[in-house]
């Protein structure tokens, strides 16, 4: 769904506290989460404002968000 909020607190509500703790303890994890947050915000902004973007660019942005989400999840469950 376009404009849907994919913030990590909605994607992984059961890990909200763990994500916070990991961000405080691990600067690399914090950067990963920040990249995810900024990318999600950018994607939602494009969707909500209906800003023209070529399909390949938009697809690449969304794919990167999925990759980041997967990487974050893998680190959370370790």
From TrEMBL:
Pfam families: DUF465. This is DUF465 domain-containing protein. It comes from Grimontia sedimenti.
């Amino acid at each position: 769904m376009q404009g849907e909020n994919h913030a990590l607190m909605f994607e992984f509500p059961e890990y909200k506290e763990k994500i916070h703790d990991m961000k405080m303890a691990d600067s690399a994890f914090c950067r990963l989460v920040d990249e995810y947050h900024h990318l999600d915000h950018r994607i939602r902004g494009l969707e909500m404002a209906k800003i023209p973007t070529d399909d390949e660019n938009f697809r690449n942005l969304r794919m990167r968000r999925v990759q980041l989400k997967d990487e974050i999840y893998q680190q959370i469950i370790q």
